[in-house]
């Protein structure tokens, strides 16, 4: 399940980085962001925990760090509308001095689960 979440997150991240993008291998998507697969797991787990307590509020932020790689970031809830939350990710991959921005969107399904959506 975690691996699926990372793959879905990677696909959503690609949309945030470059607009309309054709399908790419996961390894290439991760390479373009500078994050490792392990970094994606930490980022995804942090996003999950932000949404686990119910409907988030715009402006809510949570920081994450992967102690193993040194990559880190902040996730901010930009907007909540129609059972969907728009998230802005400020990421700083290990060894990179400049912060990068990625946007994702998660919507609640009929069971109340937050699912990544385009």
- From the alpha carbons, calculate the radius of gyration and give it in angstroms: 13 Å
The secondary-structure class comes to alpha+beta
Runs in which pLDDT lies below 50 for 5 or more consecutive residues are 1-21
C-alpha end-to-end distance: 19 Å
Could you give the order of strands across the largest sheet? 1-2-3-4-5
Pattern of helices and strands: HHHEEEEE
Number of strands: 5
Q: Output mean pLDDT.
A: 80
Overall number of domains: 1
Q: Describe the largest sheet.
A: 5 strands, antiparallel
Helix amount: 25-40%
Strand content: 25-35%
Dominant shape: globular
* Number of discrete helical segments: 3
Please explain how this structure is put together.
The protein has 118 residues and is an alpha+beta fold. It has one domain (2-117). 34% of the residues lie in helices and 31% in strands. The protein is built from 3 helices and 5 strands; from the N terminus they run αααβββββ. Strands 1-2-3-4-5 form a 5-stranded antiparallel sheet. α1 (2-18) crosses α2 (26-33) and α1 packs across α3 (37-51). It is globular, with a radius of gyration of 13 Å.
């Amino acid at each position: 399940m975690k691996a699926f979440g990372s793959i879905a997150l990677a696909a959503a991240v690609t949309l945030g980085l470059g607009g309309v993008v054709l399908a790419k291998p996961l390894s290439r998507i991760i390479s373009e962001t500078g994050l490792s697969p392990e970094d994606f797991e930490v980022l995804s787990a942090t996003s999950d925990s932000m949404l686990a307590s119910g409907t988030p509020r715009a402006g809510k932020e949570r920081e994450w760090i992967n102690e193993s790689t040194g990559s880190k970031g902040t996730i901010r809830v930009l907007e909540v509308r129609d059972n969907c939350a728009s998230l802005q990710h400020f990421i700083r991959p290990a060894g990179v001095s400049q912060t990068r921005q990625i946007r994702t969107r998660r919507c609640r399904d009929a069971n109340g689960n937050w699912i990544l959506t385009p």
